[in-house]
Amino acid sequence: MRNSLIALLIFAALAAAPPVIGGYWTGQLTGYLVYGLLAISLSLVWGYGGILCFGQAMFFGIGGYIMAVITKGMVLPDITSSYLGLIAAMAGAALFALALGYFLFAGRGISGAYLAIITLAIALVLERLMNNWYGLGGYNGLLNVPPIKLTFFGASFELWDRVPTFYAILIVVAVIFFGTTALLNSAYGLRLTACRTHPDRLASLGYSVLNIRLSVFSLSAAIAGLAGALFVTLDGFASPTLIGFTLSTEALIWVAIGGKEMLLAAFLGAILTRTAESWLSEIFGDYWILILGIAFMISVVLLPKGLLATPLEKLTEGKRR
Amino acid sequence: MSFLELKSLTKNFGGLCAVDGFSLDIAKGSVNALVGPNGCGKSTLFNLITGTIRPDSGEVLFAGVNITGRPPHEIARLGIGRKFQVPAIFDELTVRENLIVASRKQNDRTAQADILAQIHLEDQADTLAGELAHGQKQWLEIGLLLAQAPALILLDEPTAGMTAPETRATAELIHRINRDRGLTVLVIEHDMGFIEHLACPVHVMSKGKILKSGNFSEIRNDADVKALYFGTAEETVDA
Ligand SMILES: Nc1ncnc2c1ncn2[C@@H]1O[C@H](COP(=O)(O)OP(=O)(O)OP(=O)(O)O)[C@@H](O)[C@H]1O
Ligand SMILES: [Mg+2]
Questions:
Q1: pLDDT band at residue B234, thresholds of 50, 70 and 90?
Q2: Is residue B190 classed as helix, strand or coil in its secondary structure?
Q3: A4-320: CATH, from 1.10.3470, 2.60.40, 1.10.357, 3.10.450
Q4: ipTM (interface predicted TM)
Q5: Closest Cα in chain A, distance from residue B122 (Å)
Q6: Which residues belong to any copy of the ABC transporter domain (chain B) (predicted)?
Q7: End-to-end CA gap in chain B
Q8: In this model, does residue B109 exceed pLDDT 90?
Q9: Paired strand residues for A155
Q10: Which ligand is nearest to the CA of B35?
Q11: Percent of chain B with pLDDT over 90
Q12: Residue B77: which of A191, A202, A206 has the nearest Cβ?
């Protein structure tokens, strides 16, 4: 209960931010919200599902490319609906995760460091693939991805301006955040914890561990795919960097710094790290990476639950979910 | 008619024959005990029944259905529950949440309250399972089986690490669930006092197969069984 209250306050503060921080920062913050969504997806699969995915950006990138090809009319010239693009991006990423997950988890299943290495390798392969796939722009990617077009009751409205875009994205992120939180508070959330900590026990109670892992892996991929789809509409282009190594590891750092076992902490980890980066990299230049590295090490060594999750848990009286 | 039928089950680990042509019939609604020295293959036998490992040869028939080689979750759904040798509960969940997970299909609060009472954990319902005392963890695991509501339960050393009164309470609990819920029970134990208290057919296992079957006093006084336990009898009594 208090958990949701704090989350509500944070979303209210985000909603109140644009007039205070001005146009430029509103634009920046919109991007950070999308990264926050990617962090939510990683927290779900890693912190709750116990699946350490080092290539989470692959789902982000897949979502981004699907959104780009649909809204640019590269699939069907007459059907360029943003809604369709978003749904297809989520479905595409989820289906890819389902196939990949089956390969990873069936039988004895791969876990721990092996899983991390394999998912990282797959992200690298996909990045290479996109670099060389000339039909999808190759190294340069796809340019001129249109902004989100909202259509209701026949009227349509393109999100070109910063402030309406910010609110549209904030609403999507809030819906996903509170939806995922509700899911984690249900019996499904208990099963995830059970599956993460004692899969053999769960199987001998009649649950298919494979199905639970596939469900959380694809759900997380769908969220990451949605984030990627939103992202390309902000920047106006989809490029191979969305899919690969750098973004995958950055997402891991945000989530580890924030706290992987707490959706809210992971989300804020992404936003705060990104904000800190744009300030501190102006002051310290490339030394910013050092500061980030130190923060990362502190969180891993001293506060393994996360720099943000630890104080947030205090606020919520140590309630775990 | 036998409810659980094990037909010459065999399992080798490398050169070691852990289960060696093991056969046993268990009647519906009965309680049976399986005893034997450390490493004689008791837990491996359970693993073969629950699908955790596949036998090299032999068959497992449950309620007339051949379940050999099926995955553990399917076997569990058919109605076999298992307590592991090392307490296997969900440490990061509370006692109540453990029971919610175990009752896979219906989340019935009165049934859960009833189970909490039976396993003497009413006051710990909201305690994290990882924080329970050892004996309480063993009970919680039995509680998970009750919530799962199987027809056959396999208990692997349910009283290990328990005090004498806890051990007695456990024997009573097993009697009660056998009587009230009609559950068929197969229990592995080292504690002879507990086996005596159960007053049920006992099967002595040695080197992967059954050496002797009989009631407690027959087994206790059997020359072969004495020879098997010679020198290890002390340690098995208080294990
Ligand atoms: N997965 C495995 N791989 C290799 N060897 C195994 C495996 N599982 C069991 N064993 C071996 O098989 C033999 C039987 O082991 P098992 O655990 O079934 O004995 P047990 O009768 O349950 O003994 P205890 O009373 O100590 O629990 C032992 O020698 C053990 O080392
Ligand atoms: Mg054993």
A1: very low
A2: coil
A3: 1.10.3470
A4: 0.89
A5: 20
A6: 4-232
A7: 35
A8: no
A9: A152
A10: 1
A11: 74
A12: A206
